[in-house]
Design a protein that fits this description.
Blueprint (H helix, E strand, L loop, with lengths): L2 H18 L16 E10 L8 E6 L2 H10 L4 E7 L8 H4 L8 E7 L4 E11 L9 E12 L9 H21 L3 H14 L21 H12 L17 H36 L1
Helix pairs in contact: 1-2, 1-7, 4-5, 4-7, 5-6, 6-7
């Protein structure tokens, strides 16, 4: 799984578990999603007279600190937003190999009534870094709206059908182009969609309090995790297909798979956000 997306999943699911009051976030800053991060902090952007760039006002020095701040401010849930990139020379499934690529992801924070804030991550790499931790990650509050909360939730039945058909089609393509090492990922994804114990297909700490999620949500999340084949050299998007017809199918199916994975992540994580809104 892409490191930026993994971190978004961890923060959103951790925040929802903490805000539900049924989970102690102590030690969360040691989550695998932060392994290569020197810092993960949260800031608000404020304008200052005479300065072109906004000033970053740090409101939390760590995810645990941010959870505590949200609780004090009366937040009810944290949800994920995803939008595909527009006007790019390469599709999202290829650009996800690079920092900042793969579409636009934001964290949304709702108080359950009329206020929603939106946070975007900035990843900076330092050449000199201690302990193999090159990344400094900053989540900045970029917008605030006064409106009724609306948590993005794709239709589960439709998504499941699309994900299943996509995995079958792309597995068939992998067979045709003799990409046997990738065929196994698509097989695992299909098995995850029907698994009675989908947690066998993803790390136990990928979601905070995973058993709070429905079986169907965990199956979709497990399929997303199991069928992730996108990355840099040697990955699925590094393949070169000479046959023009096969190449067009490859592009179309890769885009479909990437979208199904992203939508499955959104549905799973945001189902916990929706539960928090209903419970409160």
């Amino acid at each position: 799984m892409n490191g930026e997306i993994l971190q978004l999943i961890a923060i959103a699911s951790g925040a929802n578990a903490a805000l539900s009051g049924r989970w102690n976030a102590s030690g969360f800053d040691e989550h695998q999603a932060f392994t290569y991060c020197q810092s993960v902090r949260f800031v608000e952007l404020k304008r200052s007279m005479g300065k072109k760039k906004p000033i970053e006002d740090e409101v939390a020095a760590s995810p645990e600190g941010w959870f505590g701040l949200l609780n004090k401010q009366g937040a009810r849930c944290v949800f994920l937003n995803y939008g595909s990139s527009k006007d790019q020379q390469a599709p999202d499934y290829q650009l996800v190999a690079f920092v900042g690529g793969g579409g636009t992801w934001t964290l949304g924070v709702s108080d359950g009534s009329s206020k929603v804030t939106y946070w975007v991550a900035r990843w900076l790499s330092r050449r000199s870094h201690p302990e193999g931790k090159p990344w400094e990650v900053t989540y900045g509050k970029v917008a605030e709206s006064r409106s009724a909360p609306s948590v993005p939730l794709p239709d589960q039945t439709d998504l499941r059908k699309r994900f299943t058909s996509t995995l079958k089609d792309i597995r068939r393509l992998a067979q045709e182009i003799e990409a046997d090492n990738f065929e196994q990922f698509f097989d695992r994804g299909l098995r995850a969609l029907d698994s009675a114990d989908p947690m066998d297909h993803f790390p136990g700490d990928a979601l905070a309090r995973p058993m709070d999620y429905s079986l169907e949500s965990r199956q979709l999340f497990a399929a997303a995790w199991a069928s992730w084949v996108f990355g840099g050299m040697g990955s699925w998007n590094d393949l070169w297909i000479q046959d023009e017809q096969l190449s067009r199918r490859y592009d179309a199916l890769s885009a479909r798979l990437y979208d199904a994975i992203c939508q499955s992540i959104i549905l799973t994580v945001n189902s916990a956000a929706q539960n928090n809104l209903v419970a409160n």
